[in-house]
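From the thread on structure requests for the teaching lab: each student submitted one protein with a one-line request. Submission from student K.M.:

"Model 4Fe-4S dicluster domain-containing protein from Desulfovibrio porci, tokens only."
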Amino acid sequence: MIEHIQVVPDKCRACRRCEVACIAAHHGMSFKEAMKHRDVLVSRVQVVKAEGFKTTVRCHQCDPAPCCNVCPTGALQQEKDGRITMRVQFCVACKMCIAVCPYGTISLDTIGMPDLSGDDAETIAQRARREVAVRCDMCRAWREENGKKITACMEACPVRALSMVEPDGTVVEAPQPEKKPVAEAKEAPKETAPE
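Reply posted by the TA:
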């Protein structure tokens, strides 16, 4: 078994916080910045809503992975332990992985420096932008960099609809969200007991 995320659809509110957290984690920005740019940047998790049904979808970490088997350049590879890795330098955005993914969880994203400032002056890094296939990578780099045990989407979910299943079958749930301190309530007048 490969480490993967499972969803409890009955808990999901379709608030899209998981999508914003994914953008923030993969583009090195704060949650607030990601909110501003969520229409421009690609999330690796998508919220799906239908009548009476809400859930999130992401890479199911298949073993064997059809996306890796069809990739003509070897950009997507499945390691011996089952993990799927993406070597963006080899991706030619042919969309074959998108076509074979049984869950529809691979998208194209543009790498390079986005022009989020609105200026017309384009830098070399912005001109070098290109499309590559992206899929849920279980936030491996983000988790390592930030010392986290759970993914960004799990951390952001206010109803704890997401949990991680480790290779040994252990289910890791997100901790209860910390409650924000409530402003001190005005003290009610104390009642005195009759003498």
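TA comment: Strands lie at 4-7, 46-50, 53-57, 76-78, 84-86, 107-111, 130-134, 162-165, 171-173. The chain has two domains: 1-58+136-174, 61-135.
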